[in-house]
Design a protein that fits this description.
The protein is of the alpha+beta class. The chain contains 4 helices and 8 strands; from the N terminus they run βααββββαβαββ. This is GNAT family N-acetyltransferase.
């Protein structure tokens, strides 16, 4: 689907963003994926990301179709049972990707990854990292199709187990 546009999320978007996370949480639960079933991400967590300027919205025809956040690094990625492809400071992080139900299957998540890779290059990074739950089969399939390599397992906030992926960016 064409016509996606990325913009920084704003405080006024918070309710729609939380609705998108609720839709994503429901979808994951229906697929047997326990990720986010504890209510993560909480409203204040997302409000903080918006205030810090690291939460983005993907617009389509005036509607927020999806959301994601980015970081220049992640302390949770320091200890992995496996090995990352790059060193500290060389990578960009894509987090909290969620697509509204009406936009699922329309290339929105693929667009987000492509956009994040451009952002990473613009910031002088040579790779993009992300993590997900081992039972998040749709996300695992997507990252594999986009050339992300499985790097190992890690523990993130709250002691949750995740699997990490990384992609070295081309020139």
């Amino acid at each position: 689907m064409n016509g996606y546009k990325v913009m920084p999320a704003e405080a006024g978007d918070l309710e729609r963003i939380m609705d998108i996370f609720a839709q994503a949480r429901k979808f994951m639960g229906e697929l047997g994926n326990p990720q986010w079933q504890d209510g993560f991400p909480q409203k204040q967590f997302i409000a903080d990301k918006i205030a810090r300027g690291i939460m983005y919205k993907v617009m389509c025809e005036g509607d927020i179709a999806a959301v994601f956040s980015v970081l220049d690094s992640d302390e949770d990625y320091g200890d992995i049972d496996g090995a990352w492809l790059t060193e500290e400071g060389e990578y960009f992080v894509l987090h909290t990707v969620a697509t509204a139900a009406d936009y699922r299957g329309k290339g929105c998540a693929r667009f987000i990854f492509s956009y994040a890779e451009v952002m990473a290059k613009e910031r002088g990074k040579i790779s993009v990292r992300m993590d997900t739950h081992e039972k998040n089969i749709p996300m695992r399939s997507l990252v594999a199709s986009l050339g992300y390599e499985y790097c190992g397992s890690l523990t993130v906030r709250g002691g949750k187990q995740r699997i990490g992926f990384e992609k070295i960016l081309k020139g």
